Task: structure prediction
Amino acid sequence: MNTPPAHDDPEMSPPTRRLLKRRLELDLHGELATASLDQLRRNLGLTAVDTLGETPNTVLGERIERSLRYRSIVEMAMTFSHLGAQEWSLTIDAVPRTDIDRWQCLAEIACRVAGLRIVASHTPEPFVLDDHERQEIREEAARLVAQSQRGLDEILLSTPFKAFEADSKE
Result:
């Protein structure tokens, strides 16, 4: 099988993308009509990236899940790709310690409903970060959190408080 294309979403800056690790790769086989692709995208909540065609190594859909607490941090990215003649791939990249069981279950069911057969499922061995990598991730996460907080502070400070203005005029 071909290798799925890299995740190059313009919304995801290189530091954000660096936090994600490959957690699941499904190798899929079968015919996929446009109607089935549309159904797969709907079932998985994928945003259309490209159209179905003969071109191999094409990303056809993506889903980006951000942290509920820190919206600038991407927790999970799901990508559906066309690799070649009747060859497809669905990958899930996530930050370490993210529970992807429900995403995996959803992905497997949606692919089968679309008429694709799962020929292989790859879940990488858990990886161990060395102290330097751990520190890099902490620093990047702290930077992203601080950046989000600064953006929130700017919004709050620039928002006029009409109710207070009305009260102060009296």
